[in-house]
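step=predict obj=OTOAN protein n=1098
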Amino acid sequence: IFDPVFCYSSNVWTADLLTKVMAYFHAQEIMLTFSSLQMSIKSYLKNLLYQPRQLLSELQQLDQQQFQTAMKYLFNSKKEHLEVGNIILDWGKTRERIFQSPGVNRTLFLVTLDKCFLALSALDCVDILSQVLRVSAVNYLQPDVIGSLPNLLLEDAFRNLSSLFKDLYDRTSASTQRALYGWMKQILQKSYNMSEFNESTSWVSAESLWILGRYMVHLPLEEILKISLNEIRLFISYDNATKQLDTVYDITPELAQALLERINSSGFDMRNTSTIYRQGCFTFSFMAVLGLLVCFYDDLEQMDAAVARALLHQMIKCNQLRGFQAEVHELKSQLLNIAMQNQTLNDTLGSLSDAVVGLTSSQLESLSPEAVHNAVATLNQVSGWAKGQVMILSSKYLSYEKVLSFYNVSQMGALVTGIGTQSLHSMTPRELAQIIRGTTSQYLSDLSPVQQQGILRKIASSGDFSSSVKDIQGAFFKEVSLSYLWKQTGYNSSMLKEKDLRSSQALYLYELLSKENYPVDLLSTGQLVKGVTCQLFESMDTDIFLNNFKFFEMNLHLLSPYQVNCLAWKFWKVSNASIPPFLLLALPSEYLEYVTGPLCVPFLERVGKTGMDLLNPSHHKRDAVLQKVQECLNSSIADGYDVDLIGNLICHLPPAFLHGRMSLKAMAAALHQFKLCQQLSHEQKTEIKYKLLQLYGSSNNWTAETALDVGPFIVLLSKEELNILAEKFPDIILQIAKAIGPVSSAEELLSAVFESVSNSTGSIRLSPSRADCLRTRAPSSNEIIKLGEANVFWSVQELKCMDPGTFDKNVELLGAVSGFNSSQLTALKEKAKQVWGLLPDWRSYQIISLGHIALALTEQELSELDLHSIDTISVLGQQTEWTHTQARAILQGFLDDSGQTISTLKSFDLVGLGTILCALNSTEITSIRTAEFSAAIARIGLLFCSTPVLRQFKKMTESVFGAATSWNGSVLQEIGTIAGGLNEDELKAFDKSLMPYFQPSAVRHIPPEIFQALSPEQIANLGPENAAMVTGSQREQLDASQLQSLGLALDGARSSSPGTQSTAGCPQEGQTPAPSGAPCLSGFGIWLCAVFTLHLPF
């Protein structure tokens, strides 16, 4: 209908364009006003944005000139505003809105593949694809789509597109990677002179390797072995060859060794460290250009120490490999032995790179303090240290320095985590303040809570805490107690911008700062949104609320479900006609009825991005929400468009819906999203398995890429199916099992992994020192590293027969296995006794390396250990399975060995004791000093102690914050589970407005007979999250009125609904609000419609 107009304008906007448009309509005897034209186009275009399949159809009907115009304005326009007649369009925001829609992006991707390479230059089309794919490559680039890529491209366009795919490599599935390799290979082979081709030569040139980039890992082994040596030599000489080889994270040992063999055959002597690679003005040791290939170097015969050290230096990057860490560990160990030939460990320490992580504790113990001091510049940059190793090295370094100072600590880098809490606390407040401000501050978040508390306590004791508190950044600030904050002054909003806050801190600071600051200044800090109460929401002026809503929207992940509920009620009250549809989820179920027609798409899109768990923890409401989701989807998930739209809502869809309403095409697009789901039910997983088998066929026929793409869902297969996959793709199955970790549903997978690893190593290792081990295979280091959680399948006898050196090397890995039973743990404990000797001689780093194995220590054995260090206790205190008698033994051991009593414990001691505090009796709790308790109270509030212990902690809390009846929201948030120790009268006395500020964990810990004392009004005001925490036994004690109130709280209801006070009217169909409640952009429809020359349905 607009074709003649655009012929007149030659696709250039002029001031009289609208006049021409109106004249055209009048000439067709279509009588309409400018405003009615504007509204019709706006409605039509909005509908297109919400129906991207229809948009795709419209775009596909454009002729070449129209398509060029559309692409020009969408992708190449630099203008922020466009003028059409007397209307100025905010084109910047309009484009942003278009590209934020996943469905529109998919449409642009598909139409670009379909039309662009015919209508525009290939380089322009590659640029457009680049912009679109960077939004969601993993969803759009499916293997079946790769076939639509052009296979005839000019050289520059092909290189640019290949470069884009290399950038997107990690964001695409394994099957897509394989398909893209096939596409690139097809084009590269066409450029190869086929007249020179024969079976003994390869089409792969140096340039092909460079263009393939990371896709070179898909070359067949036999193809690599045929590559011309001249081409290999030329490739290695390229400027970016090293960078490319540094990124082949998923290369296999076989391919790597084949490439190394060709490189070696091409004339480079990789053993000769004097071989120099010249490039312009620079010279490099040739070994430096091998990238990740060095991780698989296997020619160690007659290697000298210098070459071994050079290899080790290059192998620091090998931890980036996707698998094969056991093989890398073994190679480093062999190179370590060669590197130290005819030299002591003290002499070579600084030249061993990150292979030092492979040194055993006894080797590290043998180091001299001077050697550690001299090598600290290397050691402080190494990652992957075990806690025990860092403790040894820190101790050695500091014993050389004699005095712990700011300068010494600043030299330690990552090793600062090994400094004992007592040592940190012995530093001067001034030096600790320097550490907080200095370069070492980047490591402070890696310190344990007990170490952080040691630093804070010392700084606070100086009386000058105010000047230091502003320098505490990130998560470390969360350790600052509420009582510390109360005592300080001089806070302002700008100093809080780089700090993470607990809710208790945010509640206090927001209230304090709101007296002298505008909301915009406070909310713009981000973290302070945690401190906005329901009362603050309700008291906000309408304009202030709407203008600042963007801060809440941006930081939705920081808000509690209760705050989101308050936010939704506030928006409903002031502007319910433009409430963002996703907020309706936080209101009672009946408000979901307003999500109809055009509101469906923005509702699904935003809830799919935000996550239903944040907005709605109630199972009752979840069913209503999922029913609405299914309605909005027209009861089916047809294709990738629907998958794009619902995002992580897919994790919550009922099994029956997945079974009967989800197409295989949609399943292919959804697999990546399913893998991100945290809590799929068994029934959902069963349906996903059914779909995967429909999609990919029998698992017996799966390719390596299919197995990788299915990933964690392989646990759904039978033991027999898993064994077949483990036999075909042992390394891939090992990689998947490592990623899954200790989940109960993975038992058969772990069993298959164990059998696969056992069969691959096979030999029975004899233990000559024990007659009962002669016919028993013993675990090797290589197997233990590979198996991870699958180590649970070693028998007790096999664990008993483990070589002492193997245990010493791998104790931390074995201690991290969560599935060992008590007999296995006992066997490992006895092995520790055999290796380390008498219990009183065990060092702190040995005790903490035990992990779960420590649980097998008896009360008597625990009493024999040296437990003087609070850092040792803090690691033991992280175990939650201690019996009461074991916990008492640890507590008494610490008090005896450190020469303390309960009354002398400092705040960091209390933090370090952790779950051991639950073993205190009432007399002991009463003797804790109030000042120390107040500093540690937030950490103590994380413990799940018995009711009698919580009651005593509650009494201590009253000595800090006053009588329980005077506590406010920030105090309730600070003390956590301690609130579970309140008695009936105290609980009844709380104002209903404070009920949402009980932490959810505290609600669960209120005894049922106490919980039933809450009034219906108090229960109705618990808030959705706390209401969802009410246990079955608590619920049983409630009467009908209380249960009704609980239902209201779960639903997010208000006792007097603010909705009744509003005169704005309900959301209207077709009246979709713009983000942040702002009015829709005037003229948006006119421009886009004119560009695309769409036919308007009047």
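step=describe
Confidence is low (pLDDT under 50) at residues 1-11, 274-284, 1057-1066, 1068-1098.
step=end
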